[in-house]
């Protein structure tokens, strides 16, 4: 091991964590089911310490909320400062400058020449709900096209838009209407060409009745699937031709993780609306829809919003997150980290037949695990065993995918080279152990 960040002093979970877990069992629904068996006491950068004094490397980054890591100093300072001034007014009651300042910054970062505006919300799902509302109002159409393997949230509309039935949808119907799902041309799992996609679209729904196509430029929960080359550019042309809005869900893939601020920038496409959340404010409840001004201009007063949207503490945190990304050159860091991870993943693919595919962009990289490289049968149990083995050895690493057979990394971009190397060593050893059975 190159670094020495991991420090395991007790069995995992330790006695203090076990005591809290027993209380959790009694008072918190079992459906809220944490990955880590231990309880956190504090986090710094890419490291977390539990209540028993064990130290772990965190590859989950709070499910992708922490591109700037746990508790970055200047963000914490801004949060403290704002909490001492005012915590809430509701921007539509008494407005405040940090709301405008963060909107200004995000509008300036959005790709493409059209003037942009920004509306804030609380969660990723709420941003997607509003992107659909806004699209429907603008186009006066109702249809929404989404993709296989997509994840857009857990509210009624976004749960309908999400693909994976279990656990997200099963038993929770009836679902929202006018949602149409199409396969995503996926280089590893299907040979769908762009012509096949267009035929499937035209057979499924009349494009003139579609308000929006909502797509993750790099799918997150679905298993870090990068669409086939040229697909996003084609989709932009197709949607423009038919008066459909192109909505990019950048909730997981945005905020610099892929080496560009927005993942869609890798293909030079200007979406009509972009949904962001997660890393926008170190996990404080804040999300946004960034979009073309002419689209927002069609909305009547008070038709979007919410009591808590654009909370002042979250906006102050969001401004400092952007400052950190810029000043610490975290986009470049995402590229550098990405190279290291990709090389290590490719090396694991060479050593372990279990690793079927290595894919992603920048630091947003995953490995799809298969029982057999020819049949590509998903190695779900093996993936779960690897995650557990890592946890016992000081690394928290998330999985993803319809079959739960993709190891994905959502590391803080402030992770040090030693911490990254140490975490990847633990992962490598876990795959070796599980491969041997
Ligand atoms: C791509 C994507 N969209 C939407 C969501 C929903 O966000 P939230 O959990 O904040 O509602 C997520 C959450 O993981 C996501 O990854």
Radius of gyration, CA atoms, in whole angstroms: 21 Å
Q: What's the shape? A: globular
Ligands bound to this protein structure: pyridoxal-5'-phosphate
Give the DSSP E fraction (strand runs of 2 or more residues): 15-25%
**Euclidean distance between termini CA atoms:** 23 Å
- Based on DSSP secondary structure assignment, what is the total number of beta strands? 15
Number of domains: 2
Largest sheet: 7 strands, mixed
Unreliable spans: none
What does this structure look like?
- By secondary structure, this protein is an alpha/beta fold.
- It folds into two domains: 15-58 and 330-436, Aspartate Aminotransferase, domain 1; 73-327, Type I PLP-dependent aspartate aminotransferase-like (Major domain) (Aspartate Aminotransferase, domain 2, 3-Layer(aba) Sandwich), CATH 3.40.640.10.
- Helix content is 37%, strand content 16%.
- The protein is built from 13 helices and 15 strands.
- It has helices at 15-27, 61-64, 73-85, 97-109, 124-139, 156-161, 194-204, 231-241, 293-296, 312-327, 330-351, 380-392, 417-436, and strands at 40-44, 47-50, 55-58, 116-121, 143-147, 179-182, 210-215, 245-249, 273-276, 287-292, 355-361, 364-369, 395-396, 399-400, 406-408.
- The strands form three sheets. A seven-stranded mixed beta sheet has the order 4-10-9-8-7-5-6, with helices on both faces. A four-stranded mixed beta sheet has the order 1-2-3-13.
- Strand 1 and strand 2 form a beta hairpin.
- Helix 3 (73-85) packs antiparallel against helix 10, helix 4 (97-109) runs parallel beside helix 10 (312-327) and helix 11 packs parallel to helix 13 (417-436).
- Bound molecules: pyridoxal-5'-phosphate.
